[in-house]
Amino acid sequence: MTSLPRPTVELSADEARRIALRAQGFLGAPDRRGGVRGVLRHLGAVQLDTISVLARSHELVPYARLGAVGRRTVDEAYWTPAPTASAPPRPHAFEYWSHAACILPVEEWPHFAFRRRAYRARPHWNHALPDGTYDQVIKQLRAEGPLTATDLGGAKKTSEWWDWSGTKVAVERALMYGEVVCTERRGWKRVYDLAERAIPEPLLHDDLDDAECLRRLVRLAGRSLGVATHADIADYHRLKREQVDAVIADSGLVPVTVGGWSKAAWADPEALATTPRGRHRTTLLSPFDSLVWDRARTERIFGFTHRLEAYVPKPKRVYGYFAMPVLAGGRLVGRVDPAREGATLVAKQVTLESPRSVPAVAQALLEAATWVDCTNVRVERAETPALREALTAELAGKL
């Protein structure tokens, strides 16, 4: 193993927290000129999920950083191709497996070649692929153009969510192999097209070796995190430890030590060049936001334990179905489990780290309500009656 350089920069835990917030777009003036596409390029990946409470997670991510960007504007920013004078419209993004199912900047297509090769070499799959179905799907896409799984013949054999049809198995396998790509959604359905047709030609070819791909993704993860442990970096795009080990010394990241962190860390040198300053965002966060999607990192940086309880039986939930962390003053100050009832945003359950956070939580709730066209906010439950009364009074004073 190549010996790694000794850290020459020492950061306090507070400095590391502020660097991480700036790297994720929560400290300093938001880049409104770059808009939603700028947020995507800056983060490198925006996670997708089927759950929609206030909005879907890929909408909540730019909202948390930019404020009340229209939901239609968000979708158009991801999925509307850029027109060109002499070539087919160029997509801004594509979907692929990164931290999970994610929207990724189209410029990163070449750097996921290592994963596409790994899928092609994979010996076992959970869904059987009927004979001839793969070739038939490719033939249909080539003849008819971009199609949804429904257009291809149906996504499911039965009503069970996991019981995929043969065409759905085939097209998803083709997506993982890179022969097919999703650069658009229609009504939350993936629209599949041949990669050779949808991905701009200069980006199409899988000629980067694994080391080049991994160096790029490790560098991107370090930039998006600001300062991170080896495990943080690996988790960002779900790389293996040995993959990170092989390239981190040549990734451009620099080793640092962080007070209170038990593991060695790496930092983006640009993040170390200036002291993080500026206004903190106050906002509700999707549980799938890249600031908090790594639970171990969230606990280390913010001293905040958070778990998504959507898949926990209701009687066992502590914080609620889709409890959203509240970010204020550069801290995670509590959780809100939201719902919508007509024009009312309902805080079904609120838990706070300190009563001092009541004004910040009220502000976050009111901004979120405005964003989703609600005209009222109601607090249903809180840790104590006194907290519910205080938050209700704060909201009443602002409505």
From TrEMBL:
- Source taxon at top rank: Bacteria
Q: Tell me which InterPro entries the record gives.
A: AlkZ-like
Q: Which PANTHER family match?
A: CYTOPLASMIC PROTEIN
What's the protein called, per UniProt? Winged helix-turn-helix domain-containing protein
Supply the source organism for this entry.
Streptomyces apricus
